[in-house]
């Protein structure tokens, strides 16, 4: 009220004063009003949807009870958006922009470089998400070691562990040199000051959920805090040309905790996933401004840190039983990478009225659909059988190209007939039982050949494209029945 009153007085005075003076006064008042405005807003903690009032259900992600009241910050968020690209804000022609070799840094881990699109870009902001304990800190500490060994200045900021705890982890990983500096801090302003002062080449923030800005009253990990912290690191990365990694924890639903906005703000989003009980880990690119997405890197968690797995097929097939019914090898493509995996099925007589169907790693609905196709098109009576389908190694595969393999494994177990252990099957199965074409068939057949398989069962429409590949027998099939006849 006081301020509004003042405005009126100044407006009246403006008739008498010259316009210039009054203009300045208005600007000052505007700023004063913005600073003193103490609004609260509600944020959905699941997707970051913003609302001026509390809502039971989020209109953005349809989740219930996710709105939390937070103080809105005026000023500092605007600052993050302003001129984060550096001092030179002059329009430039594409020909004037020079790219240097130096702009892509090798991380010393080929699997990570592949996912990043050929190396780490200077001035980029990369988000590494994953379940707690999956190995995000270990991966990034190893990257820090490799980069510092290459002569880069690296700063590792931990908000979760003490210096001693990091040292214990580092001792397991190996030798480190003095180019890596550690900082245990959660205060955003201190971290910003340190980065501006020391100007490292690479910064790792572990984790974004622990970062805290004093101007924002909400707790660390809340939408406003996470968004503000990401804004600050974005500004630092672009302004100082530093590559910044931020670690983000994921929620029960599997997305990075806090806002989706975080994924929009960063250049690259990598997810580190895997079965906690299996030793392999998969690093998956889901967004990449500098390379292809859906590339994967495969690692194995060993006693001395993460080890790269250059040939995942070999790794996935180790331990495959010989002469067992219900087991078949398929080839799935992740990104541009073919990977052989074993599918196992167990079909047995059901002791209950309603047969039990269960899948691990394969899509449950897809398996039910395939069982229905087998019943209808091949006349198999699976209606009174329990069926369990498992992708060995704990991998999660959604690719339709594995359909034929799943169908063959189910029939193999049902009829108790062993599938040739030197055979792979690839193909998508349609509702009429037809086997449809799949992408990247050459790569799949080559991978099978490389690993010593002698026969590939593929859709007949694809046989033409693989006829040049010698040394492996290719059988084209038109429908599931043809494939089953091969058992
Ligand atoms: P960590 O990197 O702390 O996971 P995150 O940062 O994603 O929470 O990984 C911790 C797990 O990794 C822990 O269960 C122990 C295991 N580990 C190894 O098996 N070998 C090792 O050399 C290291 C450093 C960790
Ligand atoms: Mg960690």
Overall description:
By secondary structure, the protein is α/β, with parallel strands linked by helices. It has helices at 2-13, 19-36, 76-81, 110-116, 136-149, 163-173, 188-198, 223-240, 261-265, 312-317, 364-378, 403-415, 441-450, 480-485; strands spanning 40-44, 50-51, 67-71, 104-105, 120-121, 125-130, 154-158, 180-184, 202-206, 243-249, 268-273, 280-288, 296-302, 305-308, 327-334, 337-349, 357-360, 385-391, 423-425, 428-429, 435-436, 455-459, 473-477. The chain starts with a helix and ends with a helix. 39% of the residues are buried. The model is unreliable at 1-8, 10-16, 18-36 and 75-84 (pLDDT under 50). Thymidine-5'-diphosphate is lined by residues 130, 132-138, 169, 172, 301, 303-305.
**Could you say which overall geometry the principal axes of the C-alpha atoms support?**
globular
State the assembly state of the protein chains. single chain
Which class do the helix and strand fractions yield?
alpha/beta
Average pLDDT level: 84
**What is the helix fraction of residues, given as a range?**
25-40%
Arrangement of strands in the largest sheet: 8-7-9-10-6-11-12-13-14
Bound small molecules, by name, code or SMILES, are:
thymidine-5'-diphosphate, magnesium ion
Distance between the termini: 85 Å
Radius of gyration: 29 Å
Instruction: Please summarize the sheet with the most strands.
Output: 9 strands, mixed
| Number of separate strands | 23
The low-confidence runs, each spanning 5 or more residues with pLDDT under 50, are 1-8, 10-16, 18-36, 75-84
How many helices? The count is: 14
> Which percent band covers the strand fraction?
15-25%
């Amino acid at each position: 009220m006081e301020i509004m009153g003042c405005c009126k007085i100044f407006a009246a005075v403006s008739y008498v004063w010259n316009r210039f003076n009054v203009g300045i006064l208005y600007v000052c008042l505007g700023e004063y009003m913005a600073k003193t405005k103490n609004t609260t807003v509600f944020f959905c903690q699941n997707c970051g949807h913003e609302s001026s009032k509390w809502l039971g259900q989020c209109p953005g992600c349809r989740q219930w009870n996710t709105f939390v009241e937070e103080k809105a910050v005026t000023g500092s968020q605007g600052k993050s958006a302003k001129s984060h690209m550096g001092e030179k804000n002059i329009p430039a022609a594409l020909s004037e922009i020079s790219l240097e070799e130096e702009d892509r840094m090798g991380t010393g881990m080929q699997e990570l470089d592949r996912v990043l699109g050929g190396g780490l870009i200077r001035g980029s902001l990369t988000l590494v998400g994953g379940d707690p304990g999956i190995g995000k800190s270990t991966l990034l500490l190893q990257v820090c070691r490799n980069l510092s060994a290459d002569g880069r200045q690296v700063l590792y900021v931990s908000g979760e562990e003490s210096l001693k705890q990091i040292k214990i982890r580092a001792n397991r990983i190996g030798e480190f040199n003095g180019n890596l500096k550690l900082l245990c801090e959660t205060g955003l302003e201190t971290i910003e000051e340190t980065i501006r002062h020391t100007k490292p080449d690479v910064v790792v923030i572990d984790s974004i959920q622990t970062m805290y800005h004093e101007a924002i009253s909400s707790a660390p990990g809340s939408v406003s805090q996470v968004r503000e912290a990401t804004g600050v690191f974005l500004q630092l990365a672009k302004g100082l040309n530093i590559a910044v990694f931020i670690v983000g924890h994921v929620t029960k639903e599997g997305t990075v905790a806090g806002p989706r906005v975080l994924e929009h703000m960063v250049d690259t989003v990598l997810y580190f996933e895997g079965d906690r009980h299996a030793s392999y880990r998969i690093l998956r690119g889901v967004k990449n401004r500098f390379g292809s997405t859906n590339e994967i890197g495969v690692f194995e968690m060993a006693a001395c840190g993460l080890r790269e797995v250059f040939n995942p097929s070999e790794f996935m097939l180790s331990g495959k039983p010989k002469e067992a019914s219900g087991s078949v090898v398929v080839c799935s493509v992740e990104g541009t990478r073919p990977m052989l995996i074993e599918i196992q099925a167990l079909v047995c007589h059901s002791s209950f009225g309603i047969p039990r169907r269960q899948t691990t790693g394969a899509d449950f609905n897809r398996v039910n659909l395939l069982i229905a196709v087998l019943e209808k098109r091949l006349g198999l009576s699976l209606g009174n059988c329990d069926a369990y389908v498992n992708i060995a190694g704990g991998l999660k595969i959604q690719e339709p190209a594995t359909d034929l393999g799943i169908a063959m494994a189910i029939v193999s177990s049902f009829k108790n007939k062993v599938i040739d252990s030197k055979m792979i099957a690839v193909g998508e199965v349609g509702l009429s039982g037809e086997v449809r074409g799949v992408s990247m068939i050459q790569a799949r057949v080559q991978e099978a050949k490389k690993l010593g398989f002698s026969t590939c069962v593929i859709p007949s429409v694809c046989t033409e494209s693989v006829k040049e590949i010698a040394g492996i027998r290719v059988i084209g099939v038109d429908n599931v029945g043809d494939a089953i006849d091969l058992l």
